[in-house]
Design goal:
The chain has helices at about 10-25, 30-45, 60-75, 90-100, 130-140, 190, 240-250, 300-310, 325-335, 345-350, 355-370, 405-415, 420-440, 445-455; strands spanning about 55, 80-85, 105, 115-120, 145-150, 170-175, 195-200, 210, 230-235, 255-260, 270-275, 285-290, 315, 335-340, 370-375, 380, 390. By secondary structure, the chain is an alpha/beta fold. The chain folds into two domains: about 10-210, YjeF N-terminal domain (Rossmann fold, 3-Layer(aba) Sandwich); about 230-455, UDP-N-acetylmuramoyl-L-alanine:D-glutamate ligase, CATH 3.40.1190.20. Helix 2 (about 30-45) packs across helix 3, helix 2 (about 30-45) packs across helix 4 and helix 7 (about 240-250) crosses helix 12. The radius of gyration is 25 Å and the shape is elongated. It holds the Pfam family Carb_kinase. This is Bifunctional NAD(P)H-hydrate repair enzyme. Keywords: ATP-binding, Isomerase, Kinase, Lyase, Metal-binding, Multifunctional enzyme, NAD, NADP, Nucleotide-binding, Potassium, Transferase. One of its GO terms (biological process) is metabolite repair.
């Protein structure tokens, strides 16, 4: 059982393909089911505190996993019962049911237990649960001290994170073989509780992964302000937003931050202030240019945006600047570009579209030729080559003005240090999330920008 950090994220189809490959190489559905069920049982035995267990089994392979788990728990001396929504289907699930030598209760009649294991539906579900299943599932989860979902909570769509109907929140979800998008995408992620990956004896590979603590080089004896990273922040109509981004870049570890445009006097003395002249972005020492926070959407702001786009420096574009651009213009720029839209900015730039947040972010990255940080309570970072990084449940207190500007500054600092764009975006997102976690509640963006230094100290 492993944490999600850095692990592959696979769709239901990718997981089925991996299982099929394992079967072609000599395994079998029954062998995989036995492996999964025993692994689930071992986790439940360890975290269940010796309490009695109720395993809910569906008709498919997820239910088969549940029957195997129940038998293994019983063999380990745990008091365990089974309730089923319907008889098993498929040879392996039927055989697993035959391996359970106890009674099988109906969901409607089952009494709660200390520990509830949800093995009703797995990653293949694409419809809301019937009332005959949803109501007793909620009752039994609410009556348990600990609730554990096998792979995904029954009633969520594994690939999109959509909640298909009323679904009770689980305390723990055991992801089989790899993380699924629903473990990280809202609203399903909030219902998964603590997610851990179970090794099921299947090799999985994916171009999507869960965000992990970044590798970000610390200063050494040969470090100086320019080789630690120089960030140029372009100020717009709302000076405070640009100041937040600049302050964040400094506290995220950039060695030199310059604010281009008129400045407010209360800015830190360490922040260099210069006018935005025609050659301001020509300095080859600039490792990243940040534009967009508080820029303004009027025509007068197109000139500094045009100047930033014409620069050959790596570019981070946020906020108002995203509403003055098209994907085609960004793609025509070439070079390194990172976009950091929230949902409204994303829709304005790329259109509302269909599909999951992961699908839409990947499509946006392909169209724009940029790394796209589709931020929110969940964040998807996508590169034009199809790679993606998912960051799950964010601190809800981030829903306050200016925190997006702080994220942009953190990403600018990472990019200025020489990281590849996808890695820099992920490093900024991780640092931003860790700083928010450390602050806890009711913080403001100014405090978040300063707290980046404490998160940076962990790396």
């Amino acid at each position: 059982m492993s944490p999600l950090d850095g692990r592959p994220v696979v769709t239901a189809a990718q997981m089925r393909a991996a299982e099929q490959l394992a079967i072609e190489r000599g395994s079998s559905v029954a062998a995989l089911m036995d492996h999964v069920g025993r692994a689930v049982a071992e986790v439940v035995r360890r975290i269940g505190g010796g309490g009695d267990v109720l395993v809910l089994c569906g008709s498919g392979n997820n239910g088969g996993d549940g029957y195997v788990a129940a038998a293994a728990l019983k063999a380990a001396g745990i008091a365990v019962r089974v309730a089923a929504s319907s008889p098993p289907r498929g040879e392996a699930a039927i055989a697993a049911r035959a391996g359970w030598d106890g009674a099988v209760e109906t969901l409607a009649d089952a009494a709660p237990a200390s520990v509830l294991v949800d093995a009703l539906f797995g990653t293949g579900l694409n419809r809301a649960l019937d009332d005959a299943v949803a109501a007793p599932l909620r009752r039994l989860v609410e009556g348990a001290r600990l609730s554990v979902a096998v792979d995904v909570p029954s009633g969520v769509q594994a690939d999109t994170g959509e909640v298909l109907g009323p679904v009770p929140a689980m305390a723990v979800t055991l992801a089989l073989g790899a993380a699924k998008p629903a473990h990280l995408l809202q609203p399903a992620a909030r219902l998964c509780g603590t997610v851990r990956v179970l090794d099921i004896g299947v090799t999985v590979d994916s171009d999507a992964r869960v965000i992990a603590r970044p590798t970000w080089t610390r200063p050494g004896p040969d470090s100086h302000k320019f080789n630690r990273g120089m960030v140029a922040v372009v100020r717009g109509r709302m000076a405070g937003a640009a100041h937040l981004a600049a302050t964040a870049a400094m506290h995220a570890g950039a060695g030199y931050v310059v604010l281009l445009g008129a400045s407010m006097p209360e800015a830190p003395y360490a922040l260099v202030r210069k006018p935005l002249t025609d050659d301001a972005l020509d300095d080859p020492r600039i490792g990243a240019v940040v534009i967009g926070p508080g820029l303004g959407r009027d025509e007068g702001m197109r000139e500094p945006l045009d100047q930033a786009l014409a620069s050959d420096r790596p570019l981070v574009i946020d906020g108002d600047a995203l509403r003055l651009l098209t994907p085609e213009r960004i793609a025509a720029r070439g070079g390194t570009t990172i976009l950091t839209p929230h949902a409204g900015e994303f829709d304005a730039l790329f259109g509302a579209g269909d599909g999951s947040k992961l699908d839409r972010a990947r499509d946006a990255a392909t169209r724009s030729g940029a790394v796209v940080v589709f931020k929110g309570p969940d964040t998807v970072i996508a590169a034009p080559d199809g790679r993606a990084i998912l960051a799950g449940d964010a601190n809800d207190w981030l829903s306050t003005a200016g925190t997006g500007d702080v994220l942009t500054g953190a990403i600018g600092a990472a990019l200025s240090s020489g990281m590849p764009a996808l890695d820099a975006a992920a490093a900024g997102v991780w640092l931003h999330g860790e700083a928010a976690r450390r602050l806890g509640a009711a913080f403001i963006a100014d405090e978040l920008a300063v707290a980046l230094k404490h998160a940076r100290g962990m790396l």
